[in-house]
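Hi there,

I know you've been waiting on this one. I reran it after we fixed the sequence typo, so this is the corrected version. Both the input and the resulting structure follow.
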Amino acid sequence: MSMQPPIILLKEGTDSSQGSPQIVSNINACQTIADAVRTTLGPRGMDKLIINDRGQATISNDGATILQNLEVVHPAARTLVEIAKSQDAEVGDGTTSVVLLAGELLKQAKPFIEDGVHPQIIIRALRKGALLAVNKIKEIAVKIKKDDVSEQRSLLEKCAATSLSSKLVASQKDFFAKMVVDAVMMLDELLPLNMIGIKKVQGGALEDSMLVSGVAFKKTFSYAGFEMQPKQYQNPKLALLNVELELKAEKENAEVRVDTVEEYQSIVDAEWNILYDKLDKIYKSGAKVVLSKLPIGDVATQYFADRDMFCAGRVPEEDLKRTMKACGGSIQTSVQQLTEDVLGSCENFEEVQVGGERFNFFKGCPQARTCTMILRGGAEQFMEETERSLHDAIMIVRRAMKNDAVVAGGGAIEMELSKYLRTYSHTIAGKEQLLIAALAKAMEVIPRQLCNNAGFDATNILNKLRQCHAQGGMWQGVNILEEDISDNFEKCVWEPSVVKINAITAAAEATCLILSVDETIRNPKSEVGGPGPGRPPMGRGRGRPM
């Protein structure tokens, strides 16, 4: 009997692999991703140094930052990068935890897949387990009384300190926790993130960092005549412009043909008159401080200096917008209509030396409540990492203000969920029992990794934790400082419950997504002149594993 030739359905050079080996291969890829951030978890976590193709170095231990810089190409592993991003956008912290959880859930599911359990059964059990876990968190989270301001403040500071304890700036976490809470408290009800500006100035110690209640930005490039301008005002009016106050601007706008020197002279005069006319209008509007996104030339600078006014050209757009929101007024693209209502105002304006830079401070802004953090420190990478750490802490404080329920960190809540799910699994029969027990086991990855990163004997500490939780010690977690376990709620290692809820939901979703993919089909690049990069030459058999 002759062999039937294979039927070719897909374009030549297409990769496809399917079935359970494909799922296992995807799980292995995700394990590698989880391993990349595994050691960054917790107060004793290590940092990663990532160098991109342009040779810039980034030092970070923020899960989302690391994964974004890794530029993962494996399609299944990208899912983990996405959940880290979503955790970062939604809650701001817990990015490493969410990747570890997803990686561990997949690891627990792998033997079931290899033994031939259908992925859909695993997915159903996971969804059920995740739902149970989330409900349990909501049930045991501790609500904090909002009416007591000092108590709420101490709650926020503890949450910020917990977030910062795993970062580079852990040794100054109390200093920064206060600063972050002050910053968030200065905002209005909506707590908009973009109203907290963060500026970095090299030099000085970390403790020299300061919080300015108002807008602050670096002094922009300035022309001659700048020295004569006053550097301090009380209750000035601000003109915010998007207008170029330079001589060259007019002749670029039109083509002019001239026959005589007189005609040329009249054009030059007209240019001067147009500029002076603009400057005169700004002066008459009563504005004392003129900020423009476009350059303000030397003629204008000296004109303003003579009239006791301050100007700054080339102000970065985001700073100008923040000033506009904070001080009122609006950004004008012409100087024709400079009336009272388009001018901003603030209580005091001054120019101050910070380290090696000059800064312009606008304090006492009437409109939106805004603030600016000025970070000091040695190396540039160090300050960038400080900024990322503070971003996480700010997000956590915002979340804790909106959702006032907290749980204990340091692996305590995970151990409690693990105990709860394990006990629950004993009450049901069938495959689901094993799968929910596997989910319970996966939860232990967080406390285990905290121990490993600190160099403790993880098995020993986890056994103690299991025993305590079984006897009702709900908030028992890893105590990094004493190489033991402790009641982390009393120790004030607190996290908003929403962080954990989001992490578990996202990790379970990602795991279900990866388990439900049983075939990857890769189309070859349809390009002239042979296969794309990394493809086999055309005509070779299909079924190449990824």
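Quick highlight: The first strand starts at residue 15 and ends at 18.

Best,
R. S.
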